[in-house]
Hints:
7 helices
Amino acid sequence: MKVRGELALGGDERSSRRGSNQVFSRKRTIEAPxxxxxxxxxxxxxxxxxxxxxxxxxxxxxxxxxxxDPQYRGVxxxxxxxxxxxxxxxxxxxxxxxSERVIELFISGIDRVLMPSGHLFLWVDxxxxxxxxSGWFEGTSLEIVDMxxxxxxxFGMGYRTRRRAEYCVIVQKRPKRAKGVWKVHxxxxxxxxxxxxxxxxxxxxxELQGALLCAVSSPGDFVxxxxxxxxxxxxxxxxxxxxxxxxxxxx
Length: 251
């Protein structure tokens, strides 16, 4: 099941004139396979389902791009700010949280369904960035290849500095490749974009996610998000003629 369309991409036009010995390329040479989906997994739908159950229903080595925004308690448990459940933290603290083990199981499931050289965009906060997330990838064929910073433009918690950024760790399934896989080269590693928290306390930037999925997929390809939250990836995928597959416990 494929949804085909056309997408006009920006970028450095000079990269298309560079020789074949260059690492940069605006052409994507790998193709995602056609896949058969069970009837309960419907594209471009806000599915209400457990994310691990969702991943288990997808075929192996078939998906070019995944997003994952784990609901973890790293800051709330380790730093104990004292305002959990109060004012703007009420909605965040009410979310069902993932343990480290659950996060590892999600990533293992994503590893199984990603096609070779496919990408995972993993959202983390400053706490996990400093603590390190490499342990989440033990026993998988996934490697961290890059990272970008999302400047939300709003202030969060902090004993010392007030946090206004989150981080997107860019992970690739082996074999690790850039040329012929990553085709958009005008995405900066620091991006400022607002995202409304009215729909969900962990909303993510639609335009940025759209740029990332365009960099590593083609029109009609599937994009997955097994813990979709506000379903901002669904919005980004449909805006760029990709087919979204994803779910959330709350639908």
